[in-house]
Design brief:
Shape: elongated
Oligomer: single chain
Order of helices and strands: HH
Amino acid sequence: MRGPKVESRVRTAELPMLRAYRLWFEHTRKCTDGCKGSSRAQDGCETGQELWGVYRLARIEGTP
């Protein structure tokens, strides 16, 4: 017989670069101001461009 199942509720920390990319990706899927149909991040709306800039900075900082 097994004891009660214990679940860990500890949330793993998300890397800043991955978080920034996820926020940009989620924005582009929902954006109707130009991000959804553009082929490049630089061609999207102002918010999308800002989120992409945050991602690029996080990526540069995370590079060894």
